[in-house]
Amino acid sequence: MQISQELREASLPVATLLERIATVEHDLLFRKLATPDALAQHEPGGTENPDTSTRGVLVYLGHLERTHALALAGRGSAGASVAAAAGDAGEDLDAVLAAALEEQPELLPLDGGEVCSVYPKSLHALRTLDMLDVILGHVAAEMRTLEALADIEGVTPEIRKARALAPVTESLAVRLWCWILTHEGPGLPYRDSEADPQPPEWTTRITPDDLLRLSQAHQRVNARRVRLLAGLLPPDPAAAGRSALSLQAFAGAFAHERGLSPRRVMRRWSLGSLFGASVTAAKAQRDAKERAEREAKK
Prior knowledge:
This protein is 65% helix and 3% strand. By secondary structure, it is mostly helical. It starts with a helix and ends with a helix.
């Protein structure tokens, strides 16, 4: 993985971050959930993530965690194997399930003195966060293109204007990302129709250390809970040989089974709570079937 000199010389506690990246990479490749070429495209310096600074590493970690969670959710891994893995990691699955069902946030102190909470987010909000990640990647790529043009043609007025605008765009995307994560509840802090949402003033004081901590809390509260709970769902024998449901289809099926509005489920339920409710429903059905079988044998 390419890492810029800026990152190597930074005072960030990057050892834990890089260790986590290596762990998730290994698991994805070992389980054949991703290929080396596919991961390389999203590494810092890759075609999909040309930024080799701290932000590029954070974007890559986010991509790895999402890929890992979605792949395991799609496979419907056996609950026993996930439970064993969670036990090895010191996880209390009952606590994970309770946290998901209660949509518990994680408190996080920031360098500016504020204490925020990182909340479990809905599928709609998570897709918005993914979109902001893409925007950051495009900004970095455009800036590299502009720098290359400046080397060839000199700094034209258009390049000068774009250079001034790009950091503002990047800063707004980062601030929106922080605002969404720390907004109470599963949804977005603004309406979809709002043309120019303005994040709160405290987001202007976010530091690189804050971004790292927010990203790690985001993975724990969202991707990690979903990954563990998805593995507790029993595999569907009827689905053998068919493509796994997308998360959108999973949310739609969940809403249909319970007579709920799909729009509301996708926007007002955290993804972790969807999986938590599905796990408890599956367990209740399994327990009822076992009781019926025992009664039939008497």
